[in-house]
Amino acid sequence: MQLVKTITNECLHYEKLANGLPVMILPKKGYQKKYAVFAVRYGSLDSQFEVAGKGVVKVPDGIAHFLEHKLFEDEAVPVFERFAKFGASVNAYTSYSMTAYLFSTIDYFPEALRELLHFVQNPYLTEENVAKERGIIEQELNMYDDHPDRRIYRNLLNALYHRHPIRLDVGGTIASIREITVELLWECYRLFYQPANMALAVVGDVEPGEVLDIVGLQMEGWHDQGQEVKRLLPDEPETVNQPMIEQRMSISQPRCYLGFKHSKNLTGQALLIQQLAMNMIWHSLAARSSPVFASLYDSGLINDSFEAGFHASPQYAFSMVGGETDEPHKLDQALKEAIARLKQNQLSGEQVERMKHHILGSYLAAFNSLDYLANSLISHLFHGTSYLDVPDVLANLSVDTINQYLDEAFEPHQSAVSILTPEQ
Amino acid sequence: MDFVHHKIAEGVNLYLYETNKFATVTVKVFVQDSLAPETVAANALIPTVLIQGTKSYPTRMSLVQKMESLYGCVLGADIDKIGERQIMEFYFDVVTPDLIPNGKQVFREGLAAFGELITDPLVEDGAFRKDYFQKEKINLAKMVDGLINDKQAYAVWQAVKAMCKDEPFGLYKYGERNQIEQLEPQAVYDHYRRLLQSNPIDIFAVGPSLENLPELISLWPWQRTALNELSQVSVREDIREQELHEKQDMQQAILVMGYRTAQRYLSPDYYGLLVANGILGAFPHSKLFINVRERASLAYYVNSSLEGSKGLLTVNAGIAPQTYGQAVDIIRRQVAELQNGSITDDELLRTKMGLISGIRKMLDDPGSIIDRNLIGIVHEELRSPQTVMDRIASVTKEQVQEAAQGLKLDTIYCLSGQKGEA
Questions:
Q1: DSSP string computed for B88-141
Q2: Angle B345-362/B270-277 helices, nearest 10 degrees?
Q3: What topology is assigned to B242-416 in CATH?
Q4: Residue B281 has pLDDT above 80, yes or no
Q5: pLDDT class for B422, splitting at 50, 70, 90?
Q6: Fold for the domain defined by A244-422
């Protein structure tokens, strides 16, 4: 077992099991709750891949998310009820690049952990329960469609990307989920749900040795049979698909988001550096401490919904900035000008120092949140980085490096705008 | 363990919760007022005006820059509504002193800015700054208009508003556009001064080494006069069933069913009601989830929630428009099951476990440790986590049934698309 000290003087225990499964345990003394995430490096972007000896396989979009729903089926007792018996609550989510199954509990942690590992290892798929699930997922997709936040975001990604599957909702489309069959679900399950392609994180007042014993027993007989799978992404041009998507919707005020696609898909430490640098760049433009925010707010062009963010994994990287505004085209223009000005002036040492304080403080405060810690440990591991490296990488990040990112990002031909306006 | 009480001044109470568990120190200040049409919009506006700048850091930019340099201190303000009270909430979060360089200094500077923001606000000619005030009026009015963007929140609020049309609870916690537009900087500032002088103020802090807080907070410029009596919640007796439909351009339909409860926070059998709501719709094992979603595949989400001060239980479901009638029937049937006492031992046990776990989980989060007391300060009866857990554990099936029999359906509301049939 490998031990790594956190900046809060706690200790992360890391072990790679014989079957290849990485296990991370972060004991948190005095906490009531115990939280576990069992995740697979398999998300909505993985709908095309090359399997050794089988060639290229294309499966319907939304299948990772569909599988996530279906793993909650059990022949005898529904999975939700199995956890409720222990007072535990179980949940799951699918993102672009991973699927995570998680629970939190106070009592019966060993029992709940066994349940978690068991149900993810034992799918129960029938024609009937797969057919029923389509109805539930259709409702879910329709619900998102009514949500302006989701709509403007989806439109922006459609404007930025020509072919990349990030264009689509994680759940796929109503048409694509109709093509999902029991056989396809099994095929994807067998390809991706292999120990070496998964990870387990446990955070709470637990004994690492005991946790590893439980996991070891539950993993007996589970060997990695993963065939080599190469994820394929369609060739995505550098330029955007269309510079602007404008739609009407029943909302109270127009909204405008400006997005940029970034061509560099990084992994490991380079990805972490990119994330910190890009976050600081956006912070300097859009945070409440920013003179750009202040002037846009004072002029009445934006309100407190204004936000910006950088989103990246080894498979994609994009940024978006915007919010509600009465004059979407004027805001688009003002944002482009602000970015051009920032590129010219660059970030100052003083500014970067202050942001480093801020980011370090937020990083420390996040140690209050078991859920956030467990999910961050896993997503960093899947990205080839370590969540515990953040303070060091942050401290060593130079103003020059950040300004270099500022120089290279935000090319006009890589930007697009998504606008929603109220129906008349 | 629970909070230790210190009296700061007449009607100003401080509660301290010492713990080394967290990476932060959290302080929250709650200023209460009666929920009333004359003051609802002013109370909603005040927090947003206050965070635009303080005497020492007169712009939001300079204030937030200062907080960032103090290792990401968080200063904020919002408005809550509990029963028929409106509560201004001010919050302050800072990394614990031992985790950062000059931690004690960081804490003192952050806390001083927080105290100044609340008790010694930025003024101009004895009133709120006009430019900030006007801008925030516009933003607040737009935010109120923006409720319609979140269909689910909109639908739940329309149902409650229709239900409590002639009661203070039917006032939106951020006020209405016409109320906001009438606000003036002088009158609103004078109103805030009165709140600071005479309304109940409760301050909660969670973190390590809080021993200096009573003294530090006593030094804030409180100018307390006689304590204001706030209004008690109104209870409606003549309940009639009404059904309302609203159409908007949307795919899905949102169904809300509002019930009045016979018990409230101070009722001796309140915890029977809490458990009844749990069995009905607060958990994935609840009757609604199992019957509406799992068995009938009618909804992506369905749940019930309880407002224990006013005494409202609302069921909320996202459904396909054509299944409206079927969904209403199934929901009614689940309530009837509770009223007939058809409750399994398993349902009772799991629900109690779920509720008790929920309380214990709150103890892992500083904000929740504080916020669970809001209902207590409104009713002037704080209950420790242990007390609440003991009372939940002792609830019997008969008490659940009795509480369920007190549920009276008041309003069925459905928001759906133009093309949907309902």
A1: EEEEEEEE-GGGSTTHHHHHHHHHHHHHHHHHS---BTTB--HHHHHHHHHHHH
A2: 100
A3: Cytochrome Bc1 Complex; Chain A, domain 1 (3.30.830)
A4: yes
A5: very low
A6: Cytochrome Bc1 Complex; Chain A, domain 1 (3.30.830)
Q: Where are the domains positioned within chain A?
A: 2-231, 244-422
Strand locations in A228-315 (E): 229-231, 244-249, 255-261, 307-313
A87: pLDDT strictly greater than 90: no
At A223 the pLDDT is: 87
Q: Cβ contacts (< 8 Å) between A105 and chain B: which residues?
A: 357
| Cross-chain CB nearest to A368 (options B23, B252, B319) | B23
Of A29, A288, A354, the CB nearest to B69: A354
Asked if A54 reaches chain B (Cβ–Cβ under 8 Å), the answer is no
Chain B residue numbers touching A297 (CB-CB < 8 A): 60, 135
A2-231 with A244-422: one CATH topology? yes
Q: What is the pLDDT of residues A310-353, one digit of tens each?
A: 999 999 999 999 999 999 999 999 999 999 999 999 999 999 99
A 335-394 residues inside an 8 A Cβ radius of B: 354-355, 357-362, 364-370
Does ipTM exceed 0.90?
yes
Question: Between residues 125 and 164 of chain B, which touch chain A (CB distance below 8 Å)?
Answer: 135, 138-139, 142-143, 145-151
Shortest alpha-carbon distance between residue A364 and chain B (Å): 6
Same fold for the pair B4-218 and B242-416? yes
* DSSP structural state of residue B382: -
Q: How many CB atoms lie within 10 A of CB A13?
A: 20
Taking contacts as CB-CB distances below 8 angstroms, the residues of chain A near B251 are: 142-143, 145-146
Residue of A nearest to B76 (CA): A288
Per-residue pLDDT at B237:
84
* Domain definitions of chain B by residue range: 4-218, 242-416
Percent of chain B with pLDDT over 70: 99
Q: What is the pLDDT at residue B1?
A: 63
Query: What average pLDDT does range B68-92 have in this prediction?
Result: 97
| Inter-chain touch B146–A367, beta carbons under 8 Å | no
For the domain B4-218, what is the CATH code?
A: 3.30.830.10
Q: Which DSSP letter does residue A352 get?
A: H
Q: Which residues of B touch A142 (CB under 8 A)?
A: 251-252, 320
pTM of the entire structure? 0.93
What angle, 0 to 180 degrees and rounded to 10, lies between the N-to-C axes of helices B40-50 and B130-145?
Answer: 120
Judged against a pLDDT cut of 60, whether residue B419 lies above it is answered with no
Q: B223: part of which helix (H) or strand (E)?
A: none
**How confident is the model at residue B196, as a pLDDT?**
97
Give pLDDT tens digits for A167-217: 999 999 999 999 999 999 999 999 999 999 999 999 999 999 999 999 999
| SS3 category, B85 | strand
- Here the tokens at position B394 are 């002792």
A365 vs B148: CB contact, 8 Å cut-off? Answer: no
Annotation: CATH topology of A2-231:
Cytochrome Bc1 Complex; Chain A, domain 1 (3.30.830)
pLDDT value of position A34: 96
Among residues A220, A190, A21, A210, the alpha carbon closest in space to that of A109 is found at A210
Report the percentage of chain A scoring pLDDT > 70: 100
- Binary contact (B360, A32; C-beta < 8 A): yes
Compute the nearest-CA separation of A107 from chain B (Å).
Answer: 8
- Choose between B292 and B133: higher pLDDT: B133
Task: Flag if A139 and B318 touch (Cβ within 8 Å).
Answer: yes
Q: Provide CB contacts within 8 A for A53, sequence distance 6+.
A: A227
- Tell me which of B61, B131, B143, B254 to substitute to probe the interface with A (most A C-beta atoms closer than 10 Å): B61
Put simply, whether B333 touches A (Cβ < 8 Å) is no
Closest residue in B to A361 (Cα–Cα)? B71
pLDDT for B420 beyond 70: no
CB contact under 8 A, B71 and A358: yes
> DSSP characters for B394-421?
T--HHHHHHHHHT-EEEEEEEEE-SS--
